[in-house]
Amino acid sequence: MRILGILFKQNKILNLLAILVSILFFTLIFVFVVNVNQTNIEIKTTKNFEGKNIYQVSDSLIGEKEKTFFKNTKGYDLLNEFNHELSRSHEFTYYTATWQPIGVAGFKGNHSFDPNYQISGQSTPTYELNNKTYSFVLAIQANKAVFDINNLQIDMGRQFTQDEYKYKENSSPIPVLLGGQYRDLYQIGSKINIFLYNKELKGKVIGFLESHQKIMTANQPELILDNYMILPAITFSENPSNYLMHNPKDELFVKASLLAGTDSILLTKQSPVKIRKKTDQIAAKTGFRDFQLIGASSLAINALVSMTKTNMSLIVIAITLLFFITLITFLYTLHLKMKKNIDSYLVLLISGANMLHIKKYVRDEFLLLSLIGTIIPIIPLLILTGWSFSTLLIYLFFSIGCILVISQLIKYYINKEFTNIDIVQHLKR
C-alpha cells in the first residue's frame, strides 16, 4: 500500500485527470442505468399500445337531452349498466383515465400542482367550504387498465384493489395514490379531505408512484403524473337509483362519475366494423344508445412507440462510444504515467522488486482510481433518483463489469508497454 502511495504522488496532475475521467465515466453509467430502466418500462408500455386501434366513446347527452335522460332515475341505471358491459367485454380493453382536478382541504403543495397554473401561469384562488380551505389540485381518475397498460411503477405502498373501485356509501376513505413530487408533502396513511363533483369525500394516501410515470389519455399520448393525485375511477356495483333515493343531494356526483366512465377509451386489435357491431350489441342489451364511437388517431401513439425504441438504441450507442473514449483516455494516461515513472520502477527493481510486482502495482493503482470514480457519484445520484436502491444495485453490477473489462485491458496494455521498455538499458544509465 505504501508503494501505491509513492506511485500515486509521483504524478498528481495525471492522477487527478484519471480520477475526473473515472468519475465522469461512472456518472454516465449511472445515468445510462436510470435511462435504460425507464426506457425498458416505456418499451413494455408502448408494446401494449402497438398495433392496436384506439376508439373514444363519447356520450351525446347535452343540454336538454341530458336533463330529460336523467329526469327519470332509471337513466342512471341504464348508463351504469352500459359502463359495466363495456368493462366486461373481451373484444377490447376498457380504459378510463379521466382528467378531473379536485379540491383538497389544507393543501400542503405550491402552485405547481394547480391545473390553472399549468395552463395560464396564474394560480386558482382557494375557496371555503364547511370551515375548510380548499385548493384546486391536478388529479386523474383511473381504472385498473390504466395501471396495467401503462406499466405504472409504485415506489412505496400499493395499487388500488378491485373492490376499491366500487363506491360504497359510508365506507372507508377513498384510496389515493400520489405522484413522485408529493413525497415531501404527505405520508402513507395521511388523511385528505377531497371535494369531487360537488361532494366532500374522505381520502387516504395508500402509496406513491415512482418519478416520471406516464399514462396515455384521450387528449395526450403522454401525461406525466409527478404532480397528480390519482383516484380510482368510481363504479357502482348496485343500481345508482337506489343510492339516490337515500342521497338525492349527490345527484351531480353520481351523474358525473357515470359519464366519466362512459367517456372512456377502447383499445383493440379488432376492425372498426367489429367494434361498432359489439358496441351496438351492448347498446341494444342495456338500452343506452346516446353515444358516439370516435376512431381516435393512432399516429401519436405509433410515433411514441417508434421514438421509444429509437431512444433505447441511441442510449446504447452513446454509452458504447463513451466507454471507448474513456478507455482510450485511461490508456493514454497510463502510457504517460509509465513513461514518467520509469525512475521509480528502477528504484523498486534495485530494492528487490521484480517486474511482476511492478506490473501489479501499476494495475492496482488504476483499479483504485476506478473504484474512486465508482463511489463518488453514488450519494448525489441516489438523492436525485429518490434513493432507489434497485437502481444502485444495477449500477454496481454494470460498474463491476466495466471495471473487470478495463482491468483485463489494462493488464494486457501494461505487459505490452513494459515489453517496449528496455529496463536493462535504463539501469546502465
TrEMBL record:
Keywords on this record?
Answer: Membrane, Transmembrane, Transmembrane helix
This protein is called what? Uncharacterized protein
Organism listed in the record: Heyndrickxia shackletonii
Instruction: Enumerate the transmembrane spans.
Output: 12-34, 312-334, 366-387, 393-414
